[in-house]
Design goal:
The chain has 16 helices and 16 strands. The chain has about 475 residues and is of the alpha/beta class. Strand 13 and strand 14 form a beta hairpin. The longest helix is centred in the N-terminal third of the chain and has 22 residues. The structure holds FE(8)-S(7) cluster and iron/sulfur cluster.
């Protein structure tokens, strides 16, 4: 008996190790990896087979993208050339995703041709696919054949009656027919659940994205989370709806509001039902390039790679050099882990974070590498941690449209602080590399303490030390 127990523990450990190895350098599946590794999306999939009320086809797929900016589309050959070109320049690039502008599996020829070419020319890169889930069951063999280890399915409702789904999807196109309203929503759900089940059975790591749509599926998301757990999904990601009339979407035109930070935090808490939650999603464009917090898509014009040969681009991609870069990243991550210790707890409650049950919200400015290495003036996003005197927990990131200082070129003489004050209104402490006197005074007016004494230090340990220093002096 003890023998079989040991062997089952070993099998579990091996399974665990193989999953850790798969997610180790995937910036979306591993929160830790997103500070170090980059992703690229190639926009090879223009068509879609459903309509979501938060999507306007003129723009990128809102399942994995920020609506409002049209991408240039690529053929599979151009897409792979772009990956080789970018992968040689940004060597932290570890994943290629197909995430629109339509749905990858509504364009199976382009999608799978791209993956086939990537396997040939960029064998070190991870392949990732995002889909609405309608057609997974038809393409499961190809997904497995090309070793696509990561698939994201957008699942906004598990309501079997189709009522909630019909408020999100006006129609679903399947087998030459448009299915409208409740009928379409039920059909979509049936295929999504079947597809997720098939992926999990094949050992493919599934991420489920749900768009938090105020007044539509807000209260329903914990049911989605439970279903996701039951299905063996690896990670669950609640994405706030971004909605404005100028996006031209049905929800935008009907006045359905964007989801606020508060609503997102509440939903994330309600969905934390023992399922791994993704909290660092940046709702990327369909042609996103770079670390998750940065957008370098406009640096890479088609002209810079489309006319070059695969041979030339393969040399530039430089597999050996990339391997060395990745080894160096891993050495750096080991050092960071040693410096931070085990103070970050993914789903800790307030008592586990703090000895008196009080926790603080801490905002951090970073340019990556796990350090507090960005000036307040240039920060366009803030990482938000909840922390007590015992441990810390990453909560979310918050973006602002304009940084406080827009640089010489962008400067119009104004210092946009109101949006930042609004984004950080519930925070207690800001850890940043550098901050000027004026913005510091502004932030103090909302009771936000600013501290630059942790400049260039590892983030996690600094968050704990900073909270102890300012709010739990006896623990510091
Ligand atoms: Fe792209 Fe998506 Fe793959 Fe990541 S994004 S296809 S899983 S490589 Fe990541 Fe971007 Fe969020 Fe998507 S941050 S929108 S979860
Ligand atoms: Fe738009 Fe994506 Fe929905 Fe299709 S699946 S309608 S492209 S958001």
């Amino acid at each position: 008996m003890s023998c079989s127990c040991t062997s089952s523990t070993n099998t579990q450990n091996e399974l665990h190790a193989s999953i850790l190895q798969k997610i180790n350098n995937h910036p979306c599946y591993s929160q830790d990896a997103h500070q170090h590794y980059a992703r690229i999306h190639v926009a090879v999939a223009p068509a879609c087979n459903i309509q979501c009320n938060y999507c306007n086809r003129k723009y990128d797929c809102s399942n994995e993208s920020r609506p409002g900016v049209t991408s240039y589309k690529l053929s599979p050959e151009e897409a792979v050339k772009k990956v080789l070109h970018v992968g040689g320049l940004i060597q932290q690039l570890s994943v290629v995703g197909i995430a629109g502008p339509g749905d990858g599996l509504a364009n199976p020829k382009q999608t799978f041709k791209t993956f086939a070419l990537l396997k040939k020319y960029a064998p070190d890169i991870k392949l990732c696919l995002s889909t609405n889930g309608l057609m997974i069951h038809k393409h499961i063999d190809e997904i497995a054949k090309y070793n696509i280890e990561h698939v994201t399915v957008t699942l906004n409702s598990v309501d079997e009656s189709g009522e909630i789904g019909s408020k999100i999807y006006p129609w679903v196109f399947y087998e030459h027919k448009k299915h409208r309203g409740v009928e379409g929503a039920k059909l979509l759900l049936e295929k999504q659940l079947l597809g997720i089940k098939m992926l999990v059975e094949r050992g493919i790591l599934v991420k489920v994205n749900s768009v938090l749509i105020p007044g539509v599926n807000e209260e329903h998301l914990p049911f989605v989370a439970r279903k996701v757990k039951e299905l063996g999904v690896f990670i669950f990601n609640v994405m706030p709806l971004m909605s404005k009339p100028e996006f031209g979407t049905k929800f935008g035109l009907d006045g359905v509001p964007s989801a606020s930070h508060k609503q997102l935090m509440k939903a994330q808490e309600a969905c934390d039902v023992n399922v791994k939650m993704m909290r660092h999603c940046r709702q990327c464009r369909a042609d996103a390039v770079g670390l998750l917090g940065e957008d370098r898509s406009d640096e890479f014009f088609k002209e810079s790679f489309a006319e070059k040969s695969f041979e030339e681009l393969s040399m530039h991609y430089n597999l050996n050099q990339r391997m060395k870069t990745h080894e160096n990243i891993e050495t750096w991550r080991r050092a960071l882990r040693a410096a931070n210790g085990k103070i970050s707890q993914e789903s800790a409650n307030k008592e586990e974070l703090s000895s008196n049950g009080n926790t603080m919200l801490v905002a951090v400015t970073t340019r990556g590498n796990g350090l507090i290495n960005d000036h307040f003036g240039s920060a366009k996003e803030f990482l938000i941690y909840e922390a007590g005197d015992k441990a810390i927990k990453f909560i979310m990131h918050r973006k602002v449209e304009k940084s406080y200082c827009m640089g010489k070129e962008g400067c119009d003489g104004s210092y946009p602080i109101d949006e930042i004050k609004n984004a950080l209104s519930d925070c207690n402490l800001l850890l940043t590399q550098k901050i000027g006197e004026c913005p510091q005074k502004e932030l103090e007016s909302i009771h936000l303490t600013c501290d630059e004494s942790f400049a260039d230090e590892p983030i996690e340990i600094s968050v704990l030390k900073g909270v102890r220093k300012h709010f739990f002096p006896s623990a510091s």
